[in-house]
Amino acid sequence: MAQESDSAPAIILPQTEVTDEIVPATAPVFVEKEVAQEIPAETAETEPALPSSDETPRASSLRELVAMTPTDGALSEELQCLAGAVYFESRGEPLDGQLAVAQVIINRAESGQFPESYCSVVHQRSQFSFVKNGRMPQPRTSSAAWTRAKAIARIAHRGLWDSAADDSLYFHAKYVRPSWSRKKVARATIDSHIFYR
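RE: above sequence
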């Protein structure tokens, strides 16, 4: 066991001579103080602000909330991944099925059992069939399906509408029966997907 000593041995550094030597611009420059760069806040160009929960317009249905959710402007990288997963995995599903797919990705990122970001969850090996060689295909960005996927991603990310998927971490299409499904608790069946905890 290492013990602390009251008197540390003195360290003697060799004497160096100060000169007027000019250091070439390619030589490394050592900085005496720590340098910290501020992280810029997300700008309105990358992520349009939705109203806070106190200001969130009351929608009587998920369809109405999707219609009220801004979809113009660029998405952050994480929301791009979330919207892409909604688009490729469930664009033919009803809106509550699309929201459930987004909820599973969010639940995974927050669970501690899966990667910690939406993009890492979506690109995790052998999890989503639309991801090939670690890459997501390009969505048809001019389509109504992409507009809905962006709205669903923003709604799910901000928790603006409860999903029937609740705390689900897994799902599969009804026409397949993976062996892992027997060990999970089914939480919801929405159109052609079954969601599990």
